[in-house]
Design brief:
mainly alpha, 3 helices, rod-shaped
Length: about 110
């Protein structure tokens, strides 16, 4: 359905219907042009801005979008000099005994 009054949905939106409803309510509950501390919507006559529908629309907008990813790209790898500090961490404290070998036994005939 083509709705020219609505903006395109950003890629961070996870719940499109909630986001559309939140943007519609937020655009209907703007501050009054002559009294910026009051809501311009007639349903909120005399209420201070932001009114409860505007606050609810803001919370719905936040709930409908996912947080931005942190950083993109590859992780930083420690330099060889920094890695040398941890080189002996996983070596045994004393040398291991050589493995025991099974000697061939003469077969009983």
């Amino acid at each position: 359905m083509n709705q020219p009054h609505r903006r395109p949905v950003p890629p961070t939106v996870t719940d499109v219907l909630l986001w559309l409803l939140a943007t519609d309510v937020a655009s209907a509950h703007l501050p009054h042009a002559h009294h910026p501390g009051r809501c311009a919507n007639l349903r909120c006559a005399g209420q201070p801005y932001p009114c409860s529908p505007a606050r609810d629309a803001h919370r719905a907008y936040q709930a409908a979008t996912r947080p931005r990813p942190f950083a993109r790209g590859r992780a930083q790898v420690a330099t060889p000099a920094a890695a040398a500090r941890y080189a002996d961490w996983f070596r045994p404290a004393r040398p291991l005994a050589p493995p025991h070998r099974l000697l061939p036994t003469p077969s009983a005939a």
